[in-house]
């Protein structure tokens, strides 16, 4: 009973020391509960059937990611416990001097861990339950759910998961604490604060050379991931090499700067000898010097956090903002046409599919007993032809080498898609795109995939002539015109060649018909009516019952639902990982700084003895902690500028959504969480250096 009372008193007395520990545990518990409670929240929301599967996949993904998150939080808890034990070395030494056994000291730590665990779980779960209601609103907004059934929810499954995972973590902490205490010797505990790390003075010339190497490698990495031609040519292996080079160069950057900063500032006497600057700068230099690897890891974690949060927060808007533009009609049916018999073995076509490919879409619908006239209106057909002699290689002309460099994995023997001008103009009207005119000897290119368009523009500016079905044509426009023929949520049209109708002379040159499209709207005025028609044309059972039809359907409703679901799933996963990485990096920095403050009590007391005021000491401490927090963040932000450019390129097909809003939201997370850890660290450190005096 006495030991239990002592544990309570210790926590009460050292509450300020436990602030970072509590803050991390409460945030961890709250976030863990919030993201694992999403499945319980979505059950009460009336969502569309088409999004139910995506929600289930999202909740399963979040549950799997929670295992990874629990490992990160477990590491943080053990790391924080290590700091707290180090902070109390002399306290334990006094206990042992008074005759207390290591077993009893371990029991005190055991009780303290239990008390802290119960408090943090209680507060964290309370905060998590409140935040989960806000998450319900976010889920409903993203999935456009009916909010009439919204009610306060409490997830028992999330509660059990939280208890289970954090219970295991606390158990590991207890085992770790017991091992640590059993390894301690009285003499080591008494002299703990007298030990200090040996700091080797680095050669400034070597540091400068390493700095140049680091900047050069980073410059190369920045170039490869930010220049479109370099980015599009990256393979997974090359991207991996760039990530490794970027990590190594970040390490070299911290290593070299830790040896140069002090040397440089020492030359500026007006700065170095002002107030306690000399002390502050030596502390920072020593700290960075001995934590180069840790600073590198923290910087990279912050870099990942900024990129993941910025990208995930923008992807949902990117995927849905262009739907009105890219899917303005109700349905588009497509079918591969005129499949040659000789391709049957290579592509696994059945005899029925070969025969069906020579039927039009309208004829195929009749075979499926679907009355086209009953359900559809505004029908427009489009036929896509190919000329085997007109490939990517021939159409690019002099720009071919540049294109191969940018897209080395593209099949340049693939034939170009060719469409009649009259058919394209009809489709363009339906899709709200611009219509065009061409002279007899002219062609033009339409597309909306920006990276490919830039390269095609090179060929068009060179006035590259093309021979199409035996007729030589020159480009009317020196650039690709915006346009597409397939409805989707993404910008995927890398280039379609539009030619005058006479070029595709079916009677004389028998052009090869590759694909047929049928675009239409539903004969229904309300959403429910459209959804009923939708079930007829996009019923997956049709392909099972009539596999020979080789008919594919793409509708506005299915595109919209898929875009919303996928965008929401990526957003939630990005938020989950981004916030956990942010908490981890901030907590690591905070604990390192608090550990340093504990070690530097003697130094601060020496400064007091020679006349430094508390105001000067607090100012020096504030600057020291601010620079220590800002240093890895600044490098991470510079990395992120180019990382976000790379992410923007990867997300290019989803649309040109401005990243300003998502980057602003990411900065808000950084200010609240990272800034919160900074302030708590400063006030806790200020408390530490004030407590013990010589």
Jot down its keywords.
694 residues; 8% strand; six-stranded mixed β-sheet
What is shown here, in short?
With 694 residues, the chain is an alpha/beta fold. Helix content is 67%, strand content 8%.
What does this structure look like?
It is a single chain. 67% of the residues lie in helices and 8% in strands. With 694 residues, the protein is α/β, with parallel strands linked by helices. The protein has helices at residues 2-13, 19-36, 38-43, 49-87, 89-97, 102-142, 156-183, 186-190, 204-226, 228-232, 236-267, 269-272, 277-290, 292-321, 323-326, 344-347, 351-356, 361-367, 372-375, 392-396, 400-406, 421-430, 450-461, 527-537, 540-545, 556-599, 601-609, 614-650, 660-691; strands at 331-336, 376-386, 418-420, 442-447, 466-468, 471-475, 481-482, 496-499, 512-522, 551-555. A hairpin with a 2-residue loop joins β5 and β6.
Mean pLDDT score:
77
Shape: elongated
Question: Which band does the percent of strand residues land in?
Answer: 5-15%
Major sheet description? 6 strands, mixed
- Pairing-aware structural class of the strands and helices? alpha/beta
| Radius of gyration from the alpha-carbon trace, in angstroms | 33 Å
Total beta strand runs: 10
Count of helical stretches? 29
Helix percent band: 55-70%
**CA-CA gap between termini:** 34 Å
Low-confidence stretches: none
Fold blueprint:
Blueprint: H1 2-13, H2 19-36, H3 38-43, H4 49-87, H5 89-97, H6 102-142, H7 156-183, H8 186-190, H9 204-226, H10 228-232, H11 236-267, H12 269-272, H13 277-290, H14 292-321, H15 323-326, E1 331-336, H16 344-347, H17 351-356, H18 361-367, H19 372-375, E2 376-386, H20 392-396, H21 400-406, E3 418-420, H22 421-430, E4 442-447, H23 450-461, E5 466-468, E6 471-475, E7 481-482, E8 496-499, E9 512-522, H24 527-537, H25 540-545, E10 551-555, H26 556-599, H27 601-609, H28 614-650, H29 660-691
Helix pairs in contact: 1-6, 2-4, 2-6, 2-7, 2-26, 4-7, 4-26, 6-7, 9-11, 9-28, 11-13, 11-14, 13-28, 14-26, 14-28, 14-29, 26-29, 28-29
